[in-house]
Specification:
mainly alpha; Na+/H+ antiporter like fold; about 80% helix; Cation/H+ exchanger transmembrane domain-containing protein; transmembrane helix; transmembrane; Cation/H_exchanger_TM
């Protein structure tokens, strides 16, 4: 270790210690007015950003991805450890978190270059098909085989266990474009393996909604509903998917128009887009629910991904958009993943960690088998298909969102499903980034983005 590097580490440790001391002092200060509440939230945001940045920098010296450092800082600051960020504050920060997610989704879409993916159409198709079959199959089998041996599931009826297994199997194919994009950005990775992994990640988050619509029709009768109710819910999900992708395409052409007429200063506009998509999606959902009694909400994640893909591949401003997003991405990623760390449900993990480990293991096995087979059949380099599964472990937003839909059918089963899903997500959010970064290093694509 060089003297300069040792000095940087010492400075980071001292700064982190001073920040932690400031956080501890701020928690002891009395709050007697509403403006002090606002000030407390501002201090929380600033401290979260600084602690996340410093923790990530320290962990990066031992090869751990910065995204993991952000998450670790959030977990330590969160309600399950130090309670610097309590449950109430986590709830208040959700809007900021959702805006950040929309921004990251736009970045993920803008990174998908059709020209780089076109030479891997066979590999993409095989991966999507095999992962859609093998991952759910292994996860379903694992839950059905393990359910009788755990108190967590032993008290459920046979129909509820079957419903839990079906829905968990479908949710297992959901991914986290935000985590994938954060690792790619940090590693400055570029190349066919990176593009293929990101393309599969984004496509799977769309496909999981399609598969979930069919699963709802099957599961509804098991949970006491009717087949008609199941197809009704599936139809609503289908409308949400089509509407989100359509709105995203329109937004993409709107961004093109802005870039065509405004030559510079795009950063504020992109942040406004992320905020507007998030708020308008929520407001539209509330209004439609009030008027039509339908729980219909457009998905900001899909809207922004579709918009990014359109700008990248159907306009001449794709490179400009990606560079603008890259330039302002650091504070967005730090804040998003630090708050995500504070939001991780460690109680859910402690409640069912043995079953969660089995489920995560079955999911990883399905990913390894499907990516290896797809790589061999499509003639990809051996260095790629042997490590391809490591790029797909992380899960997040869409998986959580799907569990909320079940609550309208059967709150009890939804509680079990949510607990188990959150436990698996917690495991994968720690393991996934480390694995993906290692895969990028092994394939030689780390540091290939010279922009």
């Amino acid at each position: 270790m060089t003297t300069r590097r040792r000095t940087e580490i010492v400075r980071s440790v001292i700064t982190l210690g001073m920040t932690v001391a400031l956080c501890a002092w701020s928690k002891q200060a009395p709050i007697n007015s509403t403006w002090q509440v606002g000030g407390g939230i501002n201090i929380t945001l600033a401290a979260t950003l600084l602690c996340g940045f410093l923790t990530a920098g320290l962990l990066s010296h031992i090869g751990i991805p910065k995204i993991t450092g952000y998450i670790v800082a959030g977990v330590v600051a969160g309600p399950h450890v130090t309670q610097f960020i309590d449950f109430n504050t986590v709830e208040k920060l959700q809007l900021i978190n959702e805006v950040a997610l929309s921004f990251i989704a736009l970045h993920a879409g803008a990174a998908l270059d059709r020209s780089l993916l076109s030479c891997r159409t066979r590999a993409l198709a095989l991966n999507l098909v095999l992962q859609s079959l093998l991952v759910p199959l292994l996860v379903f089998a694992a839950i059905m085989a393990a359910a009788p041996f755990f108190s967590f599931t032993a008290q459920m009826s046979q129909a509820q266990v079957l419903a839990l297994a079906i829905l968990s199997a479908i949710i297992a194919i959901a991914r986290s474009p935000s985590s994938a994009m954060a690792i790619i950005t940090e590693c400055r990775a570029r190349g066919p393996f990176t593009e293929t992994a990101l393309g599969i990640t984004v496509a799977m988050d769309v496909l999981v909604i399609i598969f979930f619509t069919g699963a709802m029709a099957v599961v509804s009768p098991l949970l006491g509903g009717t087949e008609t109710q199941g197809w009704h819910q599936a139809g609503i999900l289908g409308i949400e998917l089509a509407g989100s992708l359509g709105a995203g395409a329109l937004l993409g052409y709107g961004i093109r128009t802005f870039y065509k007429r405004v030559a510079k200063d795009h950063a504020l506009f992109l942040l406004f887009i992320a905020f507007a998509v998030t708020r308008l999606s929520q407001l539209t959902g509330h209004q439609l629910s009030a008027i039509t009694d339908l729980h219909l909400t457009l998905e900001p994640l899909l809207i922004c991904i579709a918009a990014g893909v359109v700008v990248r591949n159907a306009t001449p401003f794709g490179e400009d958009l990606e560079e603008d997003l890259m330039r302002i991405s650091l504070p967005i990623y730090v804040l998003f993943f630090s708050v995500a760390g504070a939001s991780l449900d460690l109680a859910a993990l402690s409640a069912c960690w043995p079953l969660a480990l089995i489920l995560a293991g079955a999911r990883a096995a399905g990913l390894a088998l499907s990516t290896w087979t797809a790589g061999r059949l499509s003639g990809l380099p051996e260095t790629e298909y042997k490590v391809a599964w490591m790029a797909h472990l992380t899960q997040a937003g869409v998986a959580i969102g799907l569990t909320q839909i079940i609550a309208r059918e059967d709150p009890k089963t939804a509680a079990y499903l949510t607990t188990l899903t959150l436990a698996v997500i917690t495991l994968n959010q720690f393991i996934g980034p480390v694995a993906f970064k290692r895969a990028l290093i092994l394939t030689g694509e780390e540091g290939q983005d010279r922009r």
